[in-house]
Every structure is written in C-alpha cells, then in structure tokens.
Amino acid sequence: MTRMHNPPHPGETLREDVLPALGLTVTQAAQELGINRVTLSRVLNGKAAISVDLALRLEAWLDGPSAESWLKGQLAYDLWQAEQRPRPSPVIRHVAA
C-alpha cells in the first residue's frame, strides 16, 4: 500500500471544508461537538491530534465520515511527520540460540 506524500492534518479538512460548508464558527462547532473551543481550535490548526473521543463525536455530529477514517487520517499525518525527523540508527542485537 502506498502512503500519501505529506498528508494533511485532519484538522485542516475540518477547518477548510467542513466548517465553511456548515457555515459554522469554531465556537459554534465546539458547542455542537460538546468540547472546549480552545481544544477544537488546536485541532483545526494542527497543534493537537484528533483523539478517539473527538473522532467518535465527529462521526455522530457529521453522520459520517466514520471515526475510523478520522483516526486513519490522523495516523497517516503523524506517521509521515515522524518519518521526516532524523532518527538515530537502531542497535541491532543478535540473540544466541
């Protein structure tokens, strides 16, 4: 399976597509989702991840996409970001039989 190059943070989808389509402000969306406005703002700006709880709230609120799809989007974003950071080489250990 090929991974998307530089996938967007799922909060970007909410900010750029969902909220404008619904005609909602961050404050209004946070109230409807039952979460703190600052929490939602951090997600929308890519400063916080979509949690399992938020994914379930989004699924119910939007009547789809599924919580799983929100979490897959977050995982794809997190994995790509992690792959961009330099990492030390792992030490390979051999176990005697």
From TrEMBL:
Keywords: DNA-binding
Taxonomic placement: Bacteria, Pseudomonadati, Pseudomonadota, Gammaproteobacteria, Chromatiales
A Pfam family assignment: HTH_3
NCBIfam families: antidote_HigA (TIGR02607)
Domain annotation HTH cro/C1-type: ranges: 21-69
CDD domains, per the entry: HTH_XRE
Entry GO MF terms: DNA binding
Bilayer-spanning residue ranges: none
Protein name (database record): HigA family addiction module antidote protein
Stored Gene3D superfamilies: lambda repressor-like DNA-binding domains (1.10.260.40)
The organism of origin for this protein: Allochromatium humboldtianum
